[in-house]
UniProtKB/TrEMBL annotation:
It is an enzyme of class 3 (hydrolase). Its EC number is 3.1.1.-. PROSITE patterns: CARBOXYLESTERASE_B_1 (PS00122). Pfam families: COesterase (PF00135). SUPFAM superfamilies: alpha/beta-Hydrolases. Keywords: Hydrolase. The lineage of its organism: Bacteria, Bacillati, Actinomycetota, Actinomycetes, Micrococcales. Residues 1-372 form the Carboxylesterase type B domain. This is Carboxylic ester hydrolase. Gene3D superfamilies: alpha/beta hydrolase. Belongs to the type-B carboxylesterase/lipase family.
Length: 404
């Protein structure tokens, strides 16, 4: 199993992930570093876009060539990742250069929708060069000291938040607030990843994809914004402390508010905004990926599975990233990155169930519940009492139909 960590395509560290309990259960766990930020996703129109993803491919090639020496099976590789790591896997499923490098894929809170046009990424690359006062060339940018380079990235992100002009940045960048993303360059990424997957790319790989019930609530909660959002902010389509207005997600604010309020009658305005963001960022992309893969894989022997993580972390809920220590079965040895999310008594039985499902899927292609097909959309909900449900997000799927 090869883990690709998250971090918004802008930061990451392998130090937070301990694979020893996969090894305990007969799985060789590989954790890799890859270039992020402008270092990994700068596009200057010079044919060198997406080097962060090419790092991941290089690591998978190394794994195929060398993992047998560590007791692994090069013919039975599973990539798994969370957030930008899962988004990376969604792109890898579509990339010609990644074909055949893995047999299975697990995508946790990320799918195959976050990739930008080369026009957008090249414009951002030009903005970075302007900020540094150098020509927009690899040579000139490589000569900039690292700290100055990182400071310019931070200043560019501050510009994005302070001046959310869609003509300058593009709607996809404004919605995601992510300057550094994979580029649809026509070469390494020929087309939008979800289009390639719907057309059959990745259809030979088994896929498991899922989200957390309140995924994007994490970011509004840790910034304190969740308590500052008002009904008027939502009704008047306002930005709140740098968080985009509802309309940026491609749905009419009035219709969106009415639907979400009807399904979450007791939620605060901040919680409603978090629910919309969860659906735009990860839930709707996960459903669309599962649908596309299941349809394409009907011509192969590959399988598709869907899950939802529902355990509510104390004071937060079932938010982004909280499932990771359960998957790794590291509740008792957890790093400081995840410990603040777990409270004092996270349920070990849930870690037992999730970790076993991930190991079973990587080993056999079967996590222990029925596969996903668009007619039933079978979904395993992981909580202290795991249960199967069918098409649990039907109203969201219908509401977001046709949106980007």
């Amino acid at each position: 199993m090869v883990w690709i960590q998250g971090g918004g395509f802008e930061f990451s560290s392998t130090a937070a992930y301990d694979g020893r309990n996969f090894a305990r259960d007969g799985v060789v766990c590989v954790v890799l570093n890859w270039r992020v930020g402008a270092d990994g996703f700068l596009d200057l129109g010079d044919g060198q876009a997406n080097v962060g993803l090419l790092d991941q491919i290089a690591a998978l090639e190394w794994t195929r060539a060398n993992i047998a020496a560590f007791g692994g099976d090069p013919g039975n590789v599973t990539v798994f990742g969370e957030s930008a790591g899962a988004m990376s896997i969604g792109v890898l499923l579509s990339m010609p250069r990644a074909e055949g490098l893995f047999r299975r894929a697990i995508l946790q809170s990320g799918a195959a929708h976050h990739a930008l046009s080369s026009e957008t990424t090249q414009r951002i690359g030009g903005f970075l060069a302007e900020k540094l006062g150098v020509p927009p060339t690899r040579k000139a940018l490589a000569a900039v000291p690292v700290q100055r380079f990182l400071a310019a990235q931070a200043k560019l992100k501050a510009d994005l938040i302070a001046n959310p002009d869609p003509e300058r940045w593009g709607a996809d960048v404004l919605a995601s607030q992510m300057l550094w993303q994979p580029t649809i360059d026509g070469d390494t990424i020929p087309l939008p990843p979800i289009q390639r997957i719907a057309a059959g790319a990745g259809s030979m790989a088994d896929v498991m994809v899922g989200t957390n019930t309140e995924d994007w609530k994490l970011f509004l909660a840790i910034t304190g914004v969740i308590g500052k959002v008002t009904e008027r902010d939502l009704a008047e389509n306002r930005r709140v402390n740098g968080f985009p207005p509802l309309a940026i997600y491609g749905l009419p604010p009035e219709t969106t508010l009415r639907e979400y309020r009807s399904h979450y009658p007791d939620s605060s305005p901040g919680e409603l905004l978090a629910a919309v963001e969860t659906d735009w960022w990860v839930r709707i992309p996960a459903i669309r990926l599962a649908d596309a893969h299941a349809m394409a894989a009907s011509a192969t022997s590959a399988r598709t599975y869907m899950y939802e993580f529902g355990w509510a972390a104390p004071g937060l809920g079932a938010v982004h990233a909280v499932e990771v220590p359960f998957v790794f079965d590291t509740l008792d040895t957890n790093s400081r990155l995840f410990a603040p999310l777990l409270g004092t008594d996270p349920p070990q039985e849930l870690a037992d169930a999730m970790h076993a499902a991930w190991v079973s899927f990587a080993t056999t292609g079967d996590p222990g519940w029925p596969g996903y097909e668009p007619e039933r959309r079978t979904t395993m909900v992981f909580n202290t009492g795991p249960r199967l449900v069918f098409d649990p997000r039907a109203w969201e799927r219908e509401l977001w139909k046709g949106s980007r």
